[in-house]
Structures are given as C-alpha cells and as structure tokens.
Design goal:
Blueprint lengths: L2 H4 L7 H17 L2 E3 L2 H9 L3 E2 L4 E3 L2 H10 L4 E4 L5 E5 L5 E4 L5 E3 L6 E2 L3 H13 L20 H12 L4 E3 L4 H15 L2 H6 L3 E7 L4 E2 L1 H13 L3 E5 L11 H22 L5 E4 L6 E2 L4 E2 L9 H9 L3 E4 L10 H16 L4 E5 L1 E2 L4 E2 L1 H18 L6 H4 L1 H7 L9 H6 L14 H6 L5 H14 L8 H19 L1
Parallel strand pairs: 1-11, 6-17, 7-19, 9-10, 10-12, 12-13, 13-16, 16-17
Antiparallel strand pairs: 1-3, 2-3, 4-5, 7-8, 14-15, 18-19
C-alpha cells in the first residue's frame, strides 16, 4: 500500500518510523521480554530466540522481520449473519464503543451508578441502530452478576442484541475460550467462525516487557483458530515506560512486535491488529491517565502504516465527568484526530471519566461526530458535472440556482445533521428548545423503544446460557 493511501496525515517521516522500529528491535535483542506462558517461551526458543532464564527471552531481529512478512496487511470482520462488514486495510476507519466501564452516567437523570447487564444489552441495541457505529464492545462491566464471569454475560448480551462485528474482552483465558465457544455456536461451528470471523479479541499485557500468562495464552489460542487478535501492550509514560513520547512508543511497539512474532509462529498468516496509540502518561498533578490529550495521538497509528498492519486506536472519549461541553469537545477532537491518522478501528466512543464511566447519550453524539468527520475526510469529486460551468453559463449573473435540474440532482448530497441543531430559532424553541445532550438522550430513548427483535433463536441462546452457568459453577467451587 502506498504512503498516500494508508494514512491521511503523516506526523512521522519514514526515517523516523525506521528509528522507532530500530529502537524497538534493539530493546527486544538486548533487554528482552518476560513471558509468563511456557508454550510461548518454547515457540520462541524453537525459532532461535535466546532464553536467558525460564521466562526471560531475547528476541532476534530476524524473527521480527520474518513475522512482518507473514502477517496479513488486511483483516476482514463479518457480521453475525456472515456478511463482510469491515476490511481493516488502512482505507477506511471504523468506529465503536469501549468496554468494561465501572459506571454508567444514566442519560435519563444524569446519575452516575453501577451498570447492570441490562445496560450492556441497551448499549449493544443502541450500537445496532446507530448508523456510524461499525462494531460493538460491551461498554459496561455489569455489577449485578459475579465479577469473575461478567465477561460471559457481556458476550451473551452482545450476541443477542447486535448483528454487528464484536470486539470482546475476557478477564482470563477461560473467559476467552468461552466467548469463542459462544461465537462458534452462533456461527455454526469453529470452521464457520474461522472462515468468517465476526469477533475479535482485545488482549492487554501488563507492559511492553511483561506478558502475562492469560494474555499470551489468548493470543496463541486465537491465532490457532484464525480469529483476529488485537494485541495491546500497556504503557504509561514515566511509569511503566520512558517519559518521552518516542521512548514510550518504542517500548510499546517492542511489546507489540513480540505478540506479532508469537502469533505468526503459532500460525503463519494469523490475523493480527496492532495497538494504534501509546506514549501517553499520567497527569502528574492528579495522577490520572488522560484519555483525550493531544500529546501522542497518531504516532502509533502511523507506525501501523509503516508496517502495513491494521491498528486499533482510541477516540470519542473524554476525561469529563458529565456529558458536558468538555465531553463533546474532547470526543470530537479525538475522533477527528485519530480518523485523520488512518486508524482502522477506533474504540472507546462514549467513554467519560478517563474510561471509568460511559454514557449512551455521548455515544449517540459521537455517532453524529463520526458522520461529520467521515464527510470531512471524503475526497472531493472534481468533474465537469460538479464544476458545473455550463450550469453557471445557463443561469448567468442575475438569476439563482434553486430551480435548476442540477440543484435538484445534487442538493441531497450535502451533509445533513441528525442531532446537531440547524433550524431557525423560532422552530427550535417551538420544538422544546432542547440542548444537544437533551436531544441525544431523547434519541437514545426513541431508538431503544423501537429496537428490532434480533435475539438469537431460543435453542442457540440456551447453549450460551449453559456456557455462562458452567463458568459460574466453576467459580463457586
């Protein structure tokens, strides 16, 4: 893919990308990583990596170079019905919410409260109907079920309330296995799911240098089955990585490259999605990690273009505590910035409070912002028809263009908002004089009230319920 097609904005030169890559590889060859999964250590050792001690491995550049030639440049995601919906190849950005917020700011009363399974269901149902939301995550961590098995409840809720592609999060390896088993039941078997995956799994590691057992086990499990893995090494600049943006990105990138090598050693050609953010740190005044800061945006996503790999970025999120002016401003800025970077997937739309809370109303506003952003980033058609010189000649200087066939043919092409106010003052006042947040809340209620019945067949849902019950029984033992 040429540089002109894989990214809209280019914050890094090719030489700078090469420097970050060289630093990442040097870290892997000289510092190495700690892998708390014996199967991963065995894979690397068998491929020529040096095992310093049981879990400490030095990864040679040759393995990284090989893995980069094996991983697919494009990853397809399907919907629940087996139709291809997303092609992650750098040509189009897709958007979705985040997962596992500990609170919901309820749009009906603006009260911050613990979320319920019903909130996960409502989030999925809302995503199903918002036209610019392309994939679904759970949004909330439900507090009305056992924490250890909440991920199974989330998966069942999403499978029953959306047909869109799902990015799942599991709390341990067994949770990932159960989620895949649920998806296989819906797809019609493991072969059907591998052929047309409608799920991808978000995997967090502790840091770029420490890869915990569950994370690596999930990665290998998914690679074996051909299910896309989003491998996301954690890094907080100045805490678990260098305080500089470049250093933090290089360390995070090193961790991502280890995941890439492992996935390709397990199954060459396994679909792999890299982290599209990194380099951010704590606000040292508050010790809070900011979701919406400008410092490190676009850098990691540009590295994805350098590698010709799909990437997973962050946007539509705010550090505000309410759906207020700050929340909307930060949501808009982050969606636009990361979409302009060419990120393939942008998640966390609707997040508040640095990820600790979520809002369905903010998600609806983000849907409108995405529509605006997509139109802004669309290429402009320049042709004889759009230049309309003949129309100008026909109309002349004194007349207007309202009655021309050209206007009738093209006026609907102008972008028109759904939530943003564009009426005159009198009609706005006559409609209730509502602000954006109030309109968004009303839209959420309207969409949820009119949600179509897309629940799975009772026999299929019974299998999902049994998987949830078995997991809960294991926790109680």
């Amino acid at each position: 893919m040429s540089e002109s097609t894989w990214r809209t904005t280019t914050p890094l030169t090719r030489a700078q990308c090469e420097a970050i890559h060289a630093a990442s590889v040097q870290i892997l060859e000289t510092v190495g990583v700690r892998l708390q999964e014996p199967a991963a250590v065995k894979l690397l050792a068998g491929a020529g990596a040096r095992v310093v001690e049981d879990e400490h491995v030095l990864v040679p550049v040759e393995l990284v170079d090989w893995a980069l030639t094996q991983a697919p440049a494009a990853v397809d995601l399907y919907d629940r019905n087996g139709e291809r919906k997303l092609c992650l190849d750098g040509s189009r950005t897709s958007f979705g919410p985040g997962s596992d917020s500990l609170n919901i700011v309820d749009h009906r009363d603006d009260v911050r409260r613990p979320p319920l399974v019903s909130d996960v269901e409502n989030g999925a149902a809302l995503c199903e109907q918002l036209p610019n939301i392309d994939f679904v995550m759970s949004m909330f961590l439900p507090a009305d079920v056992e924490h250890a098995t909440a991920d199974r409840h989330q998966m069942r809720a999403m499978l029953n309330h959306t047909t869109k592609p799902i990015v799942l999060v599991s709390y341990d390896f067994r949770g990932c296995v159960d989620a895949v088993a649920m998806a296989e039941e819906v797809a019609g078997g493991s072969a059907a799911l591998s052929a047309r995956p409608f799920i991808a799994c978000y995997i967090n590691t502790a840091t770029g240098l420490q890869h915990n057992t569950d994370a690596v086990a999930k990665l290998l499990f998914l690679a074996e089955r051909g299910i896309p893995a989003l491998y996301i090494p954690g890094c907080i600049a100045g805490v678990t990585g260098p305080a500089t943006i470049a250093g933090s990105v290089a360390l995070t990138n090193a961790g991502m490259l280890v995941g890439l090598v492992l996935s390709q050693l397990k199954r060459a050609g396994a679909p792999f999605v890299m982290k599209g953010w990194g380099g951010g740190g704590l606000d040292m005044r508050t010790m809070v990690y900011g979701y919406a800061g400008p410092d490190s945006r676009r850098i990691a996503a540009h590295m994805a273009g350098f590698y010709d790999l799909p990437c997973f970025a962050v946007g539509g999120a705010s550090d505000a505590k309410l759906v207020d002016e700050q929340a909307v401003a930060e949501a808009a800025l982050t969606i636009l910035a990361d979409a302009a970077s060419g990120a393939d997937l942008i998640h966390d739309l609707g997040y508040l409070e640095s990820g600790l809370s979520g809002s369905l109303a903010l998600l609806a506003i983000c849907d409108e912002i995405v529509a605006w952003t997509r139109r802004y980033l669309e290429p402009v058609e320049i042709s004889a028809d759009t230049l309309a010189v003949e129309v100008v000649q026909e109309v002349g200087i004194e007349r207007q263009f309202l009655a021309t066939k050209h206007t009738g043919a093209h006026y609907r092409e102008m972008w028109s908002p759904r939530l943003f106010e564009r009426d005159n003052y009198e009609r706005w006042l006559g409609g209730g004089g509502l602000g954006l947040c109030e309109r968004a809340g009303a839209l959420v209620d309207d969409l949820l009230a009119a949600a179509p019945d897309i629940a799975l067949p009772a026999s299929t849902d019974a299998v999902l319920a049994s998987i949830v019950s078995e997991a809960e029984a294991l926790v109680r033992r």
